[in-house]
Amino acid sequence: MFEGPIQDLIDELSRLPGIGPKSAQRLAFHLVKVPADEARRLAGAIVAAKEKVRFCRECFAVSEGDLCRVCRDPGRDPSVICVVEESKDQAAVEKAGVVKGRYHVLGGAISPLEGIGPDDLRVQELLDRVARDGVAEVILATNPNLEGNATAMYVAGLLKPLRVRVTRLASGLPVGGDLEYADEVTLGQALEGRREM
Amino acid sequence: MPVYKEQGIVLRAVKLGEADKIVTILTQGSGKVRAVAKGIRRTRSRFGARLEPFTHVSLLLYRGRSLDTVTQAEIVSPFTTVRADLGLIAAGETMVEAADKVAEEHERNVQLFLLLLGGLRSLEARPADPAAVAECYLAKLLSLSGFHPSLGACAVCGAAGPHASFSAGQGGSVCDACRGPEAGRVAPEAVAWLGGLARARLAEAGAMTPPFPVRREARAMLYGFVEYHLERRMRSFALLARQPESAPRPQPAAAL
Lengths: 197, 256
Fold this sequence. Notes:
The complex is a heterodimer of chains A (197) and B (256).
Chain A: H1 5-13, H2 21-33, H3 36-52, E1 54-55, E2 62-63, H4 69-72, E3 80-84, H5 87-96, E4 102-105, H6 123-133, E5 137-140, H7 146-159, E6 165-168, H8 184-192
Parallel strand pairs in A: 3-4, 3-5, 5-6
Antiparallel strand pairs in A: 1-2
Helix pairs in contact in A: 1-2
Chain B: E1 3-16, E2 20-27, E3 32-37, E4 56-62, E5 68-77, H1 80-83, H2 86-102, H3 110-124, H4 130-144, E6 165-167, E7 172-174, E8 184-185, H5 188-199, H6 202-205, H7 212-230, H8 237-240, H9 252-255
Parallel strand pairs in B: 3-5
Antiparallel strand pairs in B: 1-2, 1-4, 2-3, 4-5, 6-7, 6-8
Helix pairs in contact in B: 2-3, 2-4, 3-4, 4-5, 4-7, 5-7
């Protein structure tokens, strides 16, 4: 146990995810040793992030203002919505540069074992957007695992009556992978989704 | 022997660190095993879909101090149909959650393994009512764990039924003389249907759909009984209870 501010700093740091008491102590002593302006920059970045980062009121991605960069961009096709689980998934899809439309962040996936049901996700907001904005296609880009697939099926079931085209990300072999190491589920899906050449 | 071979069914997988997962597997010979699958979340992981929940796999594991490590995995049966329909997923999730709660780590329980395998196989056959298969499975799981509900004679005095009260704490149907303060009034049809479900084979359970009020009451009894005796809240009941009446059932081909 230390006294005063250093112990307070250790206590605060040890509340962060993945940081145990020993790591917290190491970080705290590092921060005490660094020049004052470096420490101030870190403190400033934390405060600024907490104050400025909000969720976009349209798509619920993390954003600096009321609307995120994508929703603000008039060049984006408003008739296509790509649905993802988390903001970091949106960043990954955006990096691929293929989606010309907008996004919708659900905030997770249906997982009965973790107690996350459909009502805990931003599904109603998606349905409202689709009905309001005359959306033509919804791309379901949830993770290709059990929870992600369950979520995609649930959302697809609700979208169908709205007469909108619903598509799901293809599943198959990773680029650069080896066929002999592919498992039968993945390979089966790759074969089902094969294309004419 | 630090490396061992096992076959089992993947019950659940939780994220660990940057790209790993901890998978919980109900094995045939070693009970419940918790093992780390390294790098499984990377798209180019050699595990691919092999350690997704519901998959029946054959494994090579490395025994560790608290957690084992999966070194190789081969699919025995992927249960792809179960994975492609929300109603089947809800039923399957209930099965694996209940098995997870009953199974003990490294304690051999072949009957439980076979029950779960049978349950998933019944779901794979696309039953008309997947939730009923899961409920039949739960009744069998209770019997296997020593909590078989009394659904005819009074659970306390043994007086021949049918009786109009049901109490999870007292062990099932109770007569008017024995009923405790927490016992609830139930329709005899619901008790009779539950009794039939408990006796039915897993593969047949999906075809025995009773009138809606009977089903609803029987469900409430069964779910309450399961949670009381497993001493846990069953999270998957919330999704299972929505089946099959209210949740949409999209075509699996469109959702894949």
